[in-house]
Every structure is written in C-alpha cells, then in structure tokens.
C-alpha cells in the first residue's frame, strides 16, 4: 500500500472509480474532488471544482498525490492533464489536444473520414440556413448534433424535416447549448443495436473492456428526451463477440493509431458509442473518458487491479498488462430526481438506503450529506448496480434494491436490460 490517489469528479462514474481503486492493494488513500455523499464513505472529499485546474494542481502537489484519475470531460478539455504533466505529476486521462476527439464532433468526424473509420455520412455547417437547406435535400429521419459539449443532450434524432429544422434553429440561433452550437453536424440516421465499447489506450496499445449498453431516453421503451443515461448493463449478449472484435480492429485500434499520426497520442480511456448496423459497427460518438452510467456496470465486472492498469497506462506500459474480467453480468439502474432531464429540485431527503453488499452496490451520482441526512444534489441521484449469474439475475437483484430506496419524486426506468432478455427469448 503505497499510492495516494486523487479522483476528479462527483458522479456515479467517480463513485465506481473510487470504489474499485480503494480495493487495490497498491492504494493507501483516496481523495476525491469534489466527490459526493456516497464517495465520502470511501474517500476524503475535497471541495475543489473539476475545472479549477490550478487549485487541483496545488492540492495534488501539497498532498503528494501519486496518481490522479480524471472522470469528466470538462476537466480534460480544460487541460488538467497538460497542467499536471508539466509539473511531472502522473495523471490518467488524455491531454487537451487528444480530448478533442470528444470535445469537437467535427474534429472526430473529420478524423474518421481521413482514416476510413466507419461512421454515418455527415456534413458540418456554421450557418443555420445552409444546415436547413442540407436537411431539406437529405430528407428524414436525420440527426442534428451541436458541435461542442452539451452533457449528452445536444443530439436530436429528427423523424421529420420540420423537427430537424427546429433543432437547428434551437442549437444555432437560440443557442440553447451556448457556444457548443456555433457549428452543427448533420448526420445520417443509423439503425440497429447500440453498444458502448470502452478501452484503455496507451498510444497505439488498446486493451478493450467488456461491452455495455446505455439507455439514453428518460422513459421506458426509449421514449422521451435524452438524458445523460438512465441505466446500463454488461455483457450485451445479443451482440456477438465477432462484432466486438470487428469494432476493436476496425475502429478502436485504427483511431488510436490515427491519433498518434495526428500528433495527438491518446492516453486514458477511449469510449466508442457504436451502432451495430447491417453493414457492421459504426461510430456514433467518441468520448475521451469512462462513460456514465456504463462504468457503474463495467467496473464491477473487472477482476484485475484498476490502479495497476492505470499506472501502466500512464507509464507507457499498458502493453505489458493482461486484463481479466468476471463472468457475472451487471445491471445498473439510475434513480433520478423529479423533472430530470429538465429542471429539478435538490435537497430532497433520501430515506431507506440499503447497505452496499459485494453483489449489490448503490453508487451515488448526485447526493450530498447535510449533517446526518443524505439528500439529493443532482438530476441523476443514485446508480444502483447488481451482479448476477446472467443479465436476468442481475436485473432482478438491481430492481429489488431499487424498490427498497425511497425519495420524493424519484423516477427510474423499469426496462433496463430488457433488450437483452427479449433477444434471449427469441
Ligand atoms: P450522442 O450524444 O452522440 O451519443 O447521441 C445521443 C443518442 O442519439 C445516441 O445514443 C443514439 O441513440 C442517438 N444517435 C446519435 N447519432 C445517431 C445516428 N447517426 N443515428 C441514429 N441515432 C443516433
Ligand atoms: N453514457 C454516455 C456517456 O457517458 O457519454
């Protein structure tokens, strides 16, 4: 036990990272900035914001942190990795230039075009008039995406040309996502099953994780507006392993090589959001970090030591590491605040929280301790994860735990992992 680790972030993903890192025999102490009410049970929380790079750096130096792990994209795009590396500190997460693969959809799209990586046909526009003209030419369904960061909410899958034009108007003229809407990407509609494929990447070395599937729309049956993600499960048994192998060979590995060639070598977690179409897996988006809530379903299945993998990545030695996974399945159900993904109330007391057990972990996504009382502090409040022999067993265990939890206005999807079970029946 030697390492002092600092995790940056405050969501369910960071709780899962802290939970897994704290189990490592290499780790002596974990700090989390700023953390949340659940993380506080495992780590010392420090009240510094995720983009307050100067204060985070001062804290890491002062506390002699051996490894900093960056959760959210905002910190990566604020250049936290560059700042820490300049001071000789070990940090897990890509630098600002490499994180552009998430920070700019047009950069990611152009990169894929240059290197022949399968993705939907697209065009990028800087004026609403031209974007609308293109949409009228192409017809619907069609997808409208704000170019910059929009917390997973900048995408409209438009069923009609009118809906697409309205989305363009909102993004580019009303600027509902601010500067992220200065440019818009209009993309071909892809149909099929979605999968999230994350990998540890150290320049050209790619070690993929087990796949998972997110649930973006707020309501059952994929109805309603998109959220940050209402639940996830892993494995995704209806997606054959040959498809995953193909995605690694045709997408992740070439992208890792492309980033090196472009002078933006990637070190950290690269996340590919993929659509499994009839002509194979195609990229919907890249993220430069762990997914949320995918991480809460994937890390409980990791058998290996996460701290060891991260240190190897940071030191350019990922190629020396083999990563082992558990056979069990994991299902994560997100419990959200009333009103989310729109406006929601904070400070709602959370009653009757079951104790986490080895096979059932209540990750906190948006909570805070007020004295002795745990209260809500975000749109996504809890990410309840259970392990089981298969997806069905994990699903049953996750919902059993969810049903024991209670806070006013709590809502959650009742069909997380239902696609896997439906495919099994067929
Ligand atoms: P993103 O934020 O880019 O992951 O997009 C959010 C969601 O919109 C995705 O998870 C998909 O369900 C959907 N989506 C994005 N792009 C496309 C596309 N080209 N075709 C169909 N659905 C898409
Ligand atoms: N769950 C999707 C994301 O983390 O962006």
Shape: globular
Biggest pleated-sheet summary? 5 strands, parallel
Q: What is the averaged pLDDT score?
A: 95
Record the strand order, biggest sheet. 3-2-1-4-5
Uncertain runs with pLDDT below 50, 5 residues or more?
none
CATH topology of the largest domain: D-amino Acid Aminotransferase, Chain A, domain 1
**Helix-strand category:** alpha+beta
What is Rg?
21 Å
**Can you list the ligands bound to this structure?**
adenosine monophosphate, glycine
Give the proportion of residues in helices.
Answer: 25-40%
CATH architecture of the largest domain: 2-Layer Sandwich
Count of helix runs? 13
Q: Class of the largest domain in CATH? A: Alpha Beta
Tell me the total number of β-strands: 22
Number of domain units: 3
The end-to-end span amounts to 49 Å
Strand residues, percent: 25-35%
CATH superfamily of the largest domain: ATP-grasp fold, B domain
Protein name: Phosphoribosylamine--glycine ligase
Keywords: ATP-binding, Ligase, Manganese, Metal-binding, Nucleotide-binding, Purine biosynthesis
Cofactor: Mg(2+); Mn(2+)
Pfam family, one: GARS_A
In short:
Its EC number is 6.3.4.13. Keywords: ATP-binding, Ligase, Manganese, Metal-binding, Nucleotide-binding, Purine biosynthesis. This protein folds into three domains: 3-93, 3-Layer(aba) Sandwich (Rossmann fold), CATH 3.40.50.20; 127-182, 2-Layer Sandwich (Dna Ligase, domain 1), CATH 3.30.1490; 193-425, ATP-grasp fold, B domain (D-amino Acid Aminotransferase, Chain A, domain 1).
């Amino acid at each position: 036990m030697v390492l002092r680790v600092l995790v940056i972030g405050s969501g369910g993903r960071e709780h899962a990272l802290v939970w897994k890192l704290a189990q490592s025999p290499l780790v002596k102490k974990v700090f989390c900035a700023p953390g949340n009410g659940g993380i506080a049970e495992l780590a010392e929380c420090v009240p510094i914001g995720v983009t307050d790079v100067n204060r985070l750096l001062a804290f890491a130096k002062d506390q002699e942190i051996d490894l900093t792990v960056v959760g959210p994209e905002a910190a990566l795009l604020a250049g936290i990795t560059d700042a820490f590396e300049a001071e000789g500190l070990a940090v897990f997460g890509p630098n600002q230039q490499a994180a552009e693969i998430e920070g700019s959809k047009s950069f990611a799209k152009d990169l894929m075009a240059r290197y022949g990586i399968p993705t939907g046909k697209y065009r990028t526009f800087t004026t609403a008039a031209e974007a609308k003209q293109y949409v009228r030419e192409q017809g619907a369904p069609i997808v409208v995406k704000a170019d910059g960061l929009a917390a997973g909410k900048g995408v409209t899958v438009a069923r009609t040309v009118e809906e697409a034009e309205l989305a363009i108007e909102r993004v580019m003229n009303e600027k509902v996502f601010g500067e992220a809407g200065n440019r818009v990407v209009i993309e071909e509609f892809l149909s099929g099953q979605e999968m999230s494929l994350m990998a540890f990447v150290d320049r050209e070395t790619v070690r993929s994780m087990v796949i998972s599937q997110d649930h973006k729309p707020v309501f059952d049956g994929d109805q309603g507006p998109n959220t940050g993600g209402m639940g996830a499960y892993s494995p995704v048994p209806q997606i054959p392993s040959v498809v995953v192998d193909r995605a690694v060979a045709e997408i992740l590995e070439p992208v890792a090589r492309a980033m090196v060639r472009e002078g933006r070598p990637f070190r950290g977690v690269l996340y590919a959001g993929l659509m499994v179409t009839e002509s194979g897996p195609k990229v919907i988006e890249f993220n430069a970090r762990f997914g949320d809530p995918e991480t809460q379903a994937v890390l409980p299945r990791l058998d290996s030591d996460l701290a060891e993998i991260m240190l190897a990545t940071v030191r350019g030695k990922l190629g020396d590491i083999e990563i082992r996974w558990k056979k069990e399945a994991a299902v994560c159900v997100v419990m959200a605040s009333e009103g989310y993904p729109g406006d929601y109330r904070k400070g709602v007391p959370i009653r009757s929280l079951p104790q986490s057990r080895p096979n059932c972990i209540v990750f906190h996504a948006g909570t805070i301790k007020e004295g002795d009382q745990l209260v809500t502090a975000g749109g996504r409040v809890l990410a309840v994860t259970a392990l089981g022999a298969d997806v069905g067993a994990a699903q049953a265990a996750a919902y059993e735990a969810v049903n024991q939890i209670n806070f006013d206005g709590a809502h959650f999807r009742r069909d997380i992992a239902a696609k896997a079970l439906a495919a099994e029946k067929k």
